[in-house]
């Protein structure tokens, strides 16, 4: 479904943040990207989602090279990013935030089907549908952010630190939602600092260190590898 090959990019022409990141996501998988702060994980996601252009390398989605394709066109192709920090429209209601997530779609009946789906998946979001987003708790805002990402009807959902700042009980809820989303046939690419929970959730994982992919494998293999656990996962 997604093949990222040796991408190099950064935030100005003289400083590369990524120096050769490669990984792939197969249809139906949950794939994790792990690594320390500053390793380049979020930059990788932003490049895949079209928010940054790769200087070198390629991003291929469903057989099509989308390297450098604008972000709104990437969304149309079936790839949706839920950014770190949620970035909701605080003065809009929950319902308005969700409809903004469907900005690339025209069929009102299909949009309503998606609304029904996310309200079923997130009952608390439905309860808060008329509240302004900036009045919600952190956990509720994260649910809305994920629900908004689903409103574009993605085939691949990308999550950047979905458990950031949440209490342990809410972290478990978010991970349960991710599992349920995957059961509905949506592939997931996730960046997380919550290493153990993420490896238990995912099928495969890639570790990025200093802007490069250093390890990859089945999640259970990484959990059992003492060298990987000590050097990269802090376990």
Characterise this structure.
The protein has 235 residues and is of the alpha/beta class. 38% of the residues lie in helices and 26% in strands. The protein is built from 10 helices and 10 strands. The protein has a 6-stranded mixed β-sheet with strand order 6-7-8-3-9-10, with helices on both faces. Strands 2-1-4-5 form a 4-stranded antiparallel β-sheet, with helices on one face. Helix 3 runs parallel beside helix 6. The radius of gyration is 17 Å and the shape is globular. The protein starts with a strand and ends with a helix. The model has no long low-confidence stretch (mean pLDDT 89).
Elements, N to C (H/E): EEEHEEHEHHHHEHEHEEHH
Separation of the first and last Cα atoms: 31 Å
Rg estimate, integer Å: 17 Å
Tell me, what's the shape?
Answer: globular
Arithmetic mean pLDDT: 89
Biggest sheet descriptor: 6 strands, mixed
Query: Helical content, roughly?
Result: 25-40%
